[in-house]
Amino acid sequence: MEEAKRGTPPERPVRVYADGIFDVFHSGHARALMQAKCLFPNTHLIVGVCSDDLTHKYKGFTVMNEDERYDAIRHCRYVDEVVRNAPWTLTPEFLAKHRIDFVAHDDIPYSSAGSDDVYKHIKEAGMFAPTQRTEGISTSDIITRIVRDYDVYVRRNLQRGYTAKELNVSFINEKKYHLQERVDKVKRKVRDVEEKSKEFVQKVEEKSIDLIQKWEEKSREFIGNFLQMFGPEGALKHMLKEGKGRMLQAISPRQSPSSSPTREERSPSPTFRLPFFSKTSPPPSPRPHHSGARGYLISEDDEEEVEDDEDEN
């Protein structure tokens, strides 16, 4: 064992043998073969598979037949050689025939064929190399799952086209399974409707929350704009004040002067032109009048007013 662990020449690999039923080949089987292959640096793994007759005699009925089990092992990447119709108990002749150096198996005593441990003599000879079982998975565990959910798998296979005869199901049970399948379909439809209804309600709630949030934001914005326009210090108040001031300024009369303006302070009246003069002939020039030394230009109206003042004097 120590020499094999140190390594052997490439032309002389350590020949390790592992046997079993390997029914419903699963990851637990593959891990056990991987451990056997990795026991030594240079390993040639030989796997023995027992026949249907021997297995049914000592262990019980199998799910897969022997050819299917041989083929499953042959396709495992850790296996270098497959021995068909392997013996239940290893004899010296079998070990010598296949030049087996070590036998790999889990260390739990395997009682069968009237023996407390079929690997006892291998262990005593120092040829036993223990491996570890993978907890939680085995052929018995898988079969237990199928038996436990028997009705489910029967209905599954009936739905997939298997006949009641192929499944060894009676006529009454076949009708019962079909009825259960219809009931389950109705239940699934009801669950789908419930889930869709929940999703719809959830979407409506989400949209309602969004609408409420948007409404609140718009409401706050509207209230702010309203207060800004119509509040105590709003823009409308300032506009009304300005408008009121302009209106009062527009309708209030100007203050009358305390005394009549003198002749010199009066502003000259504008010179008017009659409309018909603009087309036929130019308007007559106003007569110039000079008053005093300043020489103001006086219109006809001013001239009449001056004459009236002279008469009063």
TrEMBL record:
Regions of compositional bias (Low complexity) in chain numbering: 252-261, 268-280
Gene Ontology CC terms: endoplasmic reticulum
Residue ranges the record marks as coiled coil: 176-203
Enzyme Commission no: 2.7.7.15
Domain Cytidyltransferase-like: 17-145
Chain intervals with Acidic residues compositional bias: 299-313
Pfam families from the UniProt entry: CTP_transf_like
Pathway assigned to this chain's UniProt record: Lipid metabolism; Phospholipid metabolism; phosphatidylcholine biosynthesis; phosphatidylcholine from phosphocholine: step 1/2
UniProt keyword list: Coiled coil, Lipid biosynthesis, Lipid metabolism, Nucleotidyltransferase, Phospholipid biosynthesis, Phospholipid metabolism, Transferase
InterPro entries associated with the record: CCT, Cyt_trans-like, Pcy1-like, Rossmann-like_a/b/a_fold
Top-rank taxon: Eukaryota
Top EC class for this record: transferase
Catalytic activity: phosphocholine + CTP + H(+) = CDP-choline + diphosphate
GO molecular function, a single term: phosphatidylcholine binding
Region (Disordered): 250-313
Role of this protein: Catalyzes the key rate-limiting step in the CDP-choline pathway for phosphatidylcholine biosynthesis.
Family statement: Belongs to the cytidylyltransferase family.
UniProt name for this protein: choline-phosphate cytidylyltransferase
Organism per entry: Knipowitschia caucasica (Caucasian dwarf goby)
